[in-house]
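Quick question, first post here. What does this chain look like in 3D?
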Amino acid sequence: MTAHLRAGPAIAAAALLLACCGCATMHGVPSESAEVVRPDQQLDFHVLFKQNCAGCHGDNGRGGAAMPLNNPAYLAVAGAQNLRATAAKGIPGTLMPPFAQSAGGMLTDPQVDALVQGMMHEWGRPADFSAIALPPYVATAPGNSADGQKAYTAACARCHGTDGTGIQSRGTPQHSIVDPSYLTLVNDQNLRSIVIAGHLDDNAPDWRSYVPGRALSSQEITDIVAWVGAHRALAAQQSANLPAANPTGIATKEKP
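> Answer (accepted):
Ran it through. Tokens below.
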């Protein structure tokens, strides 16, 4: 009887020790050897992209509302320097915000570099473009809207319609590239990037394939952007010419 009484506290102590050891390995509780990375020290590309970019550009750089970044043609033309400037400072006048701390964002300079290097490494295919003359990322000369309409007709109209409002494809109207609401969300550099790199999510080709047998020249790209962008001013002018709205809905008499 005495032996049993003496064993009781020992058994209870052993059970408590096992319970404490189990707590240290419970799901969600890091072990002493686990490395916990501070948010400002996270440099894993996939983690950074998921946390900061996937919401707009889609998982793995595709399928989002914004332009796909998982596009070798875009990465080849934009290059690491332009990608870094865009990620760090954002694009004024669009929904692309700055991410670098120096511009009001949350990421350190090494984290911005990790994002850019990750995109280039994971999704870039520089060998595919090594023997091709790439158009400049930024226009080097002013665009001409009249010439742009001619280039658009030759290169884009078969998919986007003669006036840019889209065509029926298998019963579904294509996206209008001259819609005022769309044009308020993109600037001319966005448009240029899309004309150059295409849109993989929509199976749209890049600048090399719009016209059979040749690639678009840099000036043709610039002119097409000028023609599409001119619809912003046209929409603004049309809005300015509309009669003033009557929010009350009550008929009023004109003054004599």
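Residues 244-256 have pLDDT under 50 and may be disordered.
Residues 151 and 220 are 6 Å apart (CA to CA).
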